[in-house]
Automatic annotation (TrEMBL):
The keyword Manganese does not apply. It comes from the Bacteria. GO terms for biological process: carbohydrate catabolic process. Keywords: Glycosidase, Hydrolase. This is Glycoside hydrolase family 1.
């Protein structure tokens, strides 16, 4: 037992920022890149429809046909990103100026295997990541690489309906192993899949499956997850063989569920909602399907196609750490649709004690402390908070300055609670804020929803100079890192 209470963040705490290839790179058709699922997330003007969270991340096979036939009618912002592909050196220099210890980014699957079916990787695709990693090393910034962050070869979606097919396991493991071999001497921290539990929200974004081509959405989400579990474990196996010292993690979108009242029925529902959210690390960190899910599947008539060896693979190759994103908490109550709501981003039940972001996401820093403690108590594995942040509109003043004190307040309050949790004894490896540089929103494909410390001059339609500038939060976060979280 650790008897001494240590206040604050440990030495070597990994401070930094996080991004994903499809939201920053652009250069859609360069150097042999193939088309990915995210290249077909068309922007739908939320101001025209009056729907702030106008999610663009579920694409049906009919929509894909329509987009292909009428490319000029639509805008696909994830194809242009923020041009990180050409400006990575400038961006990394800014991260270094803030003192980043770690930078989370993803490798675009289609840059390495353009259709997903090739047996040899695309050298020109790797050449780009060679440069990014070399640049990070120059500043002693650790790369933290996500292998699959909400994109995959569109060819695999069309041929197999994405992760509905077992065939995808080999395709993914081939991609993962190629990345491990290439970067075995340079990259220690890896995440196999981003927020696998979001398959329940968007089958297309999470699993590359067209929702109109499955009979039962929930069944399809869990089937895809099963194949991803096996693929992730096989990637851990390959990773450990190639780089025995590497640390490979899983990742979920963590949404803690509070009961609406102290009525036992509501409390029970909160427990169930939490079990559904934690099902993913349960499998990937503990190595087995929890029995509560067997009952859930049975009662929902969900039947998964599995092979007997899958469960041994899952048992043998668990992850080293649990990465997660944290943006909000939910409230739940005893109602017929409570289980379905547990897997979703939007909740109709509001928490009267919490303020909302402009996009309606409840802000709950104390919930972060609760969740850190809960997850650590449960898994006793290191945790890594790899996404957290405030999506907000920023105003550029006449002199070019951007006073984003709302973002500073948001992150400050979360860091304070993280510090409390670390003092409670939680083993937290690091903190990478989401969208440390403004990027294209995953959910809505817009630019207006900004998370960055670094402003990027570009609007929702892709107009702008793409010039980078420092917001007030840039200087604030620099201080936080410099003082290892002491000066907030
Ligand atoms: C996470 C994703 O769920 O949320 C990111 O991993 C995403 O890719 C982030 O950008 C914020 O969501 P949004 O929709 O505001 O971009």
């Amino acid at each position: 037992m650790k008897t001494k209470v240590e206040y604050g963040f440990p030495k070597g705490f990994l401070w930094g920022g996080a991004t994903a290839a499809n939201q920053i790179e652009g250069a859609c058709l360069e150097d042999g890149k193939g088309m990915s699922t995210s290249d077909y997330a068309a922007y739908k003007d939320p101001y025209a429809t009056g729907e702030v969270n106008n999610f663009t991340f579920n694409v049906t096979s009919k929509e894909l046909e329509e987009y292909r036939a009428n490319e000029e009618k639509y805008k696909f912002p994830k194809r242009w990103g923020i041009d990180f592909y050409h400006r990575y050196a400038e961006d990394i220099a800014l991260f270094a100026e803030m003192g980043f210890k770690v930078f989370r980014f993803s490798i675009s699957w289609v840059r390495i295997f353009p259709t997903g079916l090739e047996t040899e990787p695309n050298e020109a695709g790797f050449a780009f990541y060679d440069k990014v990693i070399a640049e990070l090393k120059k500043y002693h910034i650790e790369p933290l690489i996500t292998l699959s962050h909400y994109e995959m070869p569109i060819v695999l979606s069309e041929k197999y309906n994405g992760w509905q097919s077992r065939e995808l396991i080999d395709c993914f493991v081939r991609f993962a192993a190629a990345c491990f071999k290439r970067y075995k001497n340079d990259v220690k921290y890896w995440i196999t899949f981003n927020e696998m539990n979001m398959n329940l929200n968007s089958l297309y974004t999470g699993a590359g499956s067209f929702p109109d081509k499955v009979d039962h959405l929930e069944q399809a989400a869990y089937q895809a997850s099963h194949y991803q579990f096996v693929a992730s474990s096989l990637a851990v196996k390959a990773g450990k063989e190639i780089m025995p010292d590497a640390k490979i993690g899983c990742m979920i979108n963590r949404i803690e569920s509070y009961a609406k009242t102290c009525r036992p029925e509501d409390q029970l529902q909160a427990l169930k909602a939490d079990q559904i959210n934690l099902f993913y690390p349960e499998v990937q960190a503990r190595g087995e399907y929890p029995s509560y899910m067997s009952r859930y599947f049975k009662e929902k008539n969900i039947m998964l196609e599995t092979e007997p060896e899958d469960f041994q693979i899952i048992r043998d190759y668990t992850v080293d750490f649990i990465a997660f994103s944290y943006y909000m908490t939910h409230v739940t109550e005893d109602r017929p649709d409570a289980n379905e709501l547990a897997g979703k981003l939007d909740s109709p039940i509001k928490n009267p004690y919490l303020k909302l972001t402009e996009w309606g996401w409840p802000i709950d820093p104390i919930g972060l402390r609760i969740t850190l403690n809960k997850m650590y108590d449960r898994y006793k594995k290191p945790l890594f908070l790899v996404e957290n942040g405030l999506g907000a509109r920023d105003k550029v003043e006449a002199d070019g300055s951007i006073h984003d004190d709302y973002r500073i307040d948001y992150i400050r309050e979360h860091v304070k609670q993280m510090k409390e949790a670390v003092t409670d004894g939680v083993d937290l490896m690091g903190y990478t804020t989401w969208g440390c540089i403004d990027l294209i929103s995953c959910g809505t494909s817009e630019m207006t929803k900004r998370y960055g410390f670094i402003y990027v001059d570009q609007d929702d339609e892709g107009n702008g100079t793409l010039n980078r500038s420092r917001k007030d939060s840039f200087y604030w976060y620099k201080k936080v890192i410099e003082t290892n979280g002491e000066e907030l």
